[in-house]
Amino acid sequence: MQIKRKNKLIVQKYGGSSVANPEKIEKAAKRVIAYAKRRNRVVVVISAMGDTTDDLVELAKQINPLPSEREMDMLMSTGEQISSALLAMAIHKRGVKAISFTGAQVGIITDTDHTQAKILKIETDRIKRELTKGKIVIVAGFQGLSTALEITTLGRGGSDLSAVALAVALNADVCEIYTDVDGIYTTDPRIEPGARKLKYITFDEMLELASRGAQVMHTRAVEVAKKFNIPLHVRGSFSKKEGTIIMEKPPVIEEPVVRGVTLADSEAKITLSEVPDKPGIAASIFTILARKSVNVDMIVQNVSHKRYTDISFTVPKKDLKKAIKISRQMSRSIKAGAVTSDETIAKVSIVGVGMKSHSGVAAKCFSLLAKNRINIDMISTSEISISCVVKKDAGKKAVKVLHKGFKLDKIKT
Amino acid sequence: MQIKRKNKLIVQKYGGSSVANPEKIEKAAKRVIAYAKRRNRVVVVISAMGDTTDDLVELAKQINPLPSEREMDMLMSTGEQISSALLAMAIHKRGVKAISFTGAQVGIITDTDHTQAKILKIETDRIKRELTKGKIVIVAGFQGLSTALEITTLGRGGSDLSAVALAVALNADVCEIYTDVDGIYTTDPRIEPGARKLKYITFDEMLELASRGAQVMHTRAVEVAKKFNIPLHVRGSFSKKEGTIIMEKPPVIEEPVVRGVTLADSEAKITLSEVPDKPGIAASIFTILARKSVNVDMIVQNVSHKRYTDISFTVPKKDLKKAIKISRQMSRSIKAGAVTSDETIAKVSIVGVGMKSHSGVAAKCFSLLAKNRINIDMISTSEISISCVVKKDAGKKAVKVLHKGFKLDKIKT
Questions:
Q1: Which of these, A292, A310, B69, B330, has the minimum number of CB atoms within 10 Å of its CB?
Q2: From A66, which residue of chain B is nearest by alpha-carbon distance?
Q3: A124/A299 Cα distance (integer angstroms)
Q4: Among partner residues B64, B93, B151, which is closest to A89 by beta-carbon distance?
Q5: What is the DSSP code (8-state) at residue A186?
Q6: Cβ neighbours of residue A198 under 8 Å, at least 6 residues apart?
């Protein structure tokens, strides 16, 4: 007796660049159909075409520079509804059954935090019913329906999040993320042509890479995938090659210690000089910055001389003006000295779970940079990463030095 | 004791040309606010911006020449959602409360006939709740939610229909239709510069004018307004002048007999010659054409000579090929003669409820045309209209002759 093999349930997510025009939508349709024909059940999550979301934001700003977030969600959610309907039409043309849904129709229930709503639950009945009818189900990404019955959007990287959440809710076998790069690389190939594609990467490494400048996947989606242990397969929309699988425990015995190098130049440095070296001063500075929604990343407090110390920290460039203003007020009230800022910095990071158990990685990192006459301005470390702030014009060189120094150009997996 | 006057409930509909770009949306916002500030409750129904709907249809056709109607509705309904959100933002900028809704959110329930759904009922709870909060309520026109919980659209002129149906459901005091012309004219001012704007017109006259080529309002919306006796005020979006009020009984004792002249050149004529003059033959021809969805407008059967007759009828030009093919098959099967067609025709009509009680209108119409050497090819009449088919190149002249002959250039109301 032959046991009938259960077919797989796959969630595929196509990003905006993968559906930027009718031709690309047709290519995505072919790809979706190819999977469905192998007797798999396929749920597709789709982003808005190309720059649609940016265009809609621009249109809104022309009318109201501070649009209501509830109305922004009404506006922006149309982008994914359009691409979903078009993908369904492209699949129909090839004689295959498909149906598109908005986030609201399919029961992606979120909180009421417009423009950055959190998914609370997904009612999967309607999707399952359509899958049972043999249809490919297309879901507009990036959006949901709030508990107040309003249309919401999920913020940056929202479609990735829709896909992962659907994969969790449907207990999918795989969640594939199609994008314009064909996987996760050891570093940005535009900076270092020797960059290698990784076959596997752990959730934690991916989170570190993403938070340190790698732009392939948004951290929130990776966090959810990690929480529910759903492997993500990041791959190129227009390539048949395997991409990179992000998972808890990749099937590799011995991994290289460092797995990726990132470069971020979207931050600026602020220095408060002559800060009275008393307990609680630093805490109060960063409490106030946090209250004003300034995202402080790295903090360094120099060795104090006499009763004074210098405190430097980095903030996103877009928040620099606000952060300087707050810092000046703080400086006056705590009787500190001048507030200076520097926008010509770059942050270089190395990431790898192997660092946990390997000593000497930091030392090697610093000595590689020193040997190449790259000054380190600030340092911060986590269990699985080391970040160094350097002069902006040394950023790319630092990436190359570290990539070669840790033998990432020779990596196999 | 002073009795508190209840404020009015107004439904305003803005067409696509009235919200074609951000500047026009801001103008519409000012207009809406002006009404709301006079303590009126305002519900706004809005069409998609300018050519948005056509652009979306074009995009769909690039992907699938025969797109599924269900997916077309998913696609097209986004146009009105976008303009609704933008109008809400424009109103907010001026410090006035407003909220936008899709047809589905607001409970416009339709049948499941995608792309031309009929409104079954409107659940007004949510609108009323928001009006009570002092908000201007904006509803995306042209769309609804089917009984199968799918997004539907209402077909051509659908936003007019949304507005009238909302006015009925909310028991509105007025329904204003804002468009790019400032009212209903005695004829097309581009043809006859002496055309006059009518202050009032009856529902029946408006229906006749619309079905005979006047393009200001779609017949379905007028039919619903007539059924529930909701006066419609058709007026210009960018003008403060009063427009034309369409109502059951305009407040005028003695009306001119003829109220409007229309010209339509979208039809073609087909002639079946030597048709056997037997009962039932004509019926069978038009039954088959109707079954094939060819919309036959005028029919003329010439006096029969011997046992044969000629039958001419008009069809929309877009259906001409199909109609000729069907006619040829018919002609063979009933042993009739040649099938000929003529696309160089125009239909001129005069409309007015006064015709019912005034004899001699037809005679005057024919003699006006004859005196000006315009040959009449076909004639059809209803209780309140007379239509004549003439050669296409005589169409505009016929309009001018009838407009002057019936003294429409002197009309006061």
A1: A292
A2: B93
A3: 45
A4: B64
A5: S
A6: A183, A184, A185, A186, A244, A259, A260, A411, A413
**Whole-angstrom distance, CA of residue A322 vs CA of residue A318:** 9
Beta-strand ranges (E) seen in B20-142 are 41-46, 98-101, 108-110, 119-122, 136-140
Crossing angle of the two packed helices B52-63 and B69-93, in degrees rounded to 10: 150
Q: With beta carbons under 8 A apart, name residues in chain B contacting A22.
A: 59, 62-63
**Terminal Cα distance for chain B, rounded:** 40
Asked if residue A307 is part of any domain, the answer here is no
Q: Is residue B14 part of a domain?
A: yes
Answer yes or no: is A105 within a domain.
yes
For A206-225, the pLDDT digits (tens) are: 998 888 877 778 888 999 99
What tokens appear for A227 in the block? 């929480």
Q: Find tokens 């009570």 and name the residue.
A: B132
Residue A354 located in a structural domain? no
Residues of B in Cβ contact (< 8 Å) with A75: 81-82, 85-86
The one-character DSSP state at A8 is: P
In the block, residue with structure tokens 């314009």:
A180
Mean pLDDT of chain A: 90
Tally of domains within chain B: 1
CA distance A197 to A210: 16
Give the distance from CA A406 to its chain's centroid.
24
Position A366: which residue type?
Answer: F
- Cα of A25 to nearest chain B Cα, Å: 8
pLDDT tens for B265-312 read 989 999 998 888 777 777 888 888 888 888 888 888 776 667 788 888
Judged by CB atoms closer than 8 Å, whether chains meet at A92 and B68 is answered as yes
Whether residues B90 and A22 touch (CB distance < 8 A) is answered with no
**Residues paired with residue B45 on neighbouring β-strands, in sequence order:** B13, B139
Name the residue range of residue B25's domain.
9-180
- Is B95 in a helix, a strand, or coil? coil
Nearest CA-CA distance, residue A62 and chain B, Å: 7
Q: Is B231 helix (H, G, I), strand (E, B) or coil?
A: coil
- Helix then strand count (H, E) for chain A reads 11, 20
Chain centre to alpha carbon of residue A130: 31
Evaluate whether A212 touches A198 at the Cβ level (below 8 Å): no
Q: Do B63 and A86 touch (CB under 8 A)?
A: yes
Query: Would the ipTM clear 0.85, i.e. be above it?
Result: no
CB B365 within 8 A of CB B321: no
- Domain containing residue B154: CATH number: 3.40.1160.10
